[in-house]
Amino acid sequence: MTLPYIAAFLWASTGILYLVVLYMLKLRRDDYPVSSSLLWRKAINDYRVNHPFQRFKSNLLLLLQCLFIMLIALTVGGLTFEGWTSYGMTNIILIDNSLSMNATLNDGRTRLDHAKDMAKDFVENMSGSDRACVIAFSDRAIEILSLTNSKSDLRAAIESGISPTDRQTDAKEAFRRIYAEFNSERLKAENLNPPQVVMFSDGRMPELPSNLTDETPIEVIYNPVGDSMDNVAITVLDVRAAPSYAHSRVGTESGEITETEAYHLFALVKNFSANEKTITLAITHNTDPDLRANRAEKIATEFKTIAGFDPDNPSKNEATLSLLLYPLPEGLLSVKIEEEDALMTDNVAKVFVRAPKVFDILLVYSPALGNAFLDRTLDSMTRLISVSKTTIDDFNANPISLCEQFDLVIFDRVQPVAISPGSYAFVHTLPNLPDFVAGPEVSYPNTVLTTIGNTENASRLLKFTGWNEFWTISANPPAKLPVKNETLLGCGSGPLISISETDAGHRVLHFAFDLLKSNIMVQRTWIIFFSNMLDYFAHLTGEEGGIHFRPGDVVTIKGDYGIDEGEEISASVSIAPSFGSVLKETSKLTSTMQFAGTDVAGIYRLDVKEPGDVRFAVNPLGKTEGDLRIADSIKFDRIDELIAGESYWETNLNFWPYLVALALLVLFIEWFFYQKRVF
What we know:
By secondary structure, this protein is an alpha/beta fold. Strand 31 and strand 32 form a beta hairpin. Helix 4 (111-124) packs antiparallel against helix 5. It starts with a helix and ends with a helix. Residues 81-86, 293-301, 450-458, 541-545 and 646-653 have low confidence and may be disordered.
C-alpha cells in the first residue's frame, strides 16, 4: 500500500468516526415519568443509536454518508485505474540543463526555468501509485533523485537540485544509464511497469540510441521547451605565439625597426538568425586596454556583416577574424560580441596569453636521406623551438639519455633501437615497441585523400587545417596501434597520420608516408599543423599558455609549484569574476592535478602556495549550442524520429473523476431520502 492510499485510509477512518460521534450526539431527551412501557422497545433502539458500545439499528442515511466520505478520501488519494496490473507508472523525468537551455525568453526567464515548471506540472498530474526519478543531462547524466512517489520530494529535486551548466547537449549517456538500470530483471524484481521517459529539452542533440534490449520497452515523450530564437556566437577562438618574431617600430624614438613578440588571433563567428546581422567585436586585454599594435586599422571594433542562417549552406552564415597582434603582453585577452541576443554566454571567449615555451627538439636523420623542406620548417620557428640534430647511428649509441634531454624527438625515416617514455614524431617508420606493428606498403597513384579535420574539430592537432588537396604516392599504414589512438588523416587502408599513447607513457605522432613523397610540406596547412603539434605536446608537458578548455573538459595541470618531492599541500580552485566561490578543494597536490569541475564558462584560478598561481579559461566554443531553433523531433538510431509530445504507450487512467461523480450521486440519494423522511 502506497503512502497516498494510507493517507486516504486515515482520512476516511477519521471522517467516519467523526460522523458516528455526531450521530451519537444527535438526540437529546429529557426524563419524564410514563404510565406504560409499551414504547420501551423503540426507546431501546434509539438508545443504541446515541450511545457507544451498542449495536446500531439499520440507518441508510448513516451508510450513505460513510460511503460519501470514503469516496472523497479515495479521490484525495489519487486512485488510478491501471488495467491488468496493480502497480503505477515508472516515470523517468529527463531535464536538459545544457548551455542552450540558458537562453532567455521574452518573460526574462530561461528555458531551464520553464522546463522545471513543466516538469513540476507533470509531477502534480501523476497518480498516487506512480513513481518517478529525476535526471539532469547535458553531455553527461546526473541522477538528482531516485525512484519515489513523494510529489513533494520530486518538486524539491526539480526546483533546487538542477543547476544550469554551459556544457554541450547529448543525451546518449542518460539513455545508456536508463537502459542499464531499468532492465527487465529489475522491473520484475521490483514489480515495476516498463518505464516512461519524459524529456524536457529544446531538442538540439545528436542521434540517440534506441532500446538496447527488446525485453525492456521504454516509452519516450519529448516535450519541447521555449521558442526558436536569434543568436550569434563565437564558435572558435585561438591565440598563439607566431613562429617567428615580428618587426615593429613601436616604442622606439628613432623609428628604427625592432623585433618583437607577435601573436596570431583567429576567431570564427556564426549567425544562427534567419536575418542578416552586422557584428561588432570588442577585443580587449586586461593590462593593455588600447591593444597598441603596429597596424593601420583599428582592431577594437573590427568586424563585418554576416548573412542569415542557411542549413543548406553552413559556411554562408559565418565570418572569420584573423589578426597579427604585436607587441602583446602576457595577460587575459577577451573577444566579445557587443550586440545582445538571447544567449550571452557564447558571445564572449577568453584566453590567457603567456610567453611561449621554447621547445627543445632533436631531429634524428640518416645522412643518406635529406629533407630540406623539414629543415626549412624547423628553421622558420626560431621563436618557439630550439633544434638539435644527430644521425641515427649517434643516437643509437646512447638512446635513452638523449630522449630524456629533449621535449620532442623527430625520427625522419629512421628507427631507433629504444626510446624512453616521452613525446615523439615518427616519419615513415614506427617505434620499436610491441604496441606498434607496421602494415604492408600501399600505393596511391593519382589519388587525392581527405581528412576529418576542420576549424571546429575538437582535436588540437587539426585546428584550422584543411587537407582537401593532399596526396601521397605510397604509405605504410600501421596494422596495429595502441588502444589509445586517434586517426587524424585516414584512408581505406588505414591511418596515414595518427596520434597514440602507450600505457608506459610514450606519446607518438606517426606519419605513415614519406613526407617527400607527398605534397604535405608545400601546402599552407603544413606550418599550421606543425604549430598545432607543438601546441599539443606543450599541453601534455603542462604548459597551459594560450590553451583554453570547453565546459566539461577535465583539466590536467602539471608543474612543480615549488613543491618538494613527496610533499602534499592543499589547493583550491575558484571561478571569476570574484574568485570567491571555491569549486573544489584537494589535500593532495604534488606535481599533477586533475580538475573536472568546469561546468560553467569563465576564468578559473588554481591557488597553490600563492593566489593565482595558475589560471585557465573555459569557453563554450562550438556550433552546437548556439543554434537556438527548437527541434520538432529527436532521432533514435534504430527507430523513427520521435515527434514532440508523441507517446507510444498509454499512461495510467485517473479514476478520481468517476469517484467524484459517484460521491455526488450518493450525496443526492442521501438528500432525496432525507427529504422523504423515510428513515
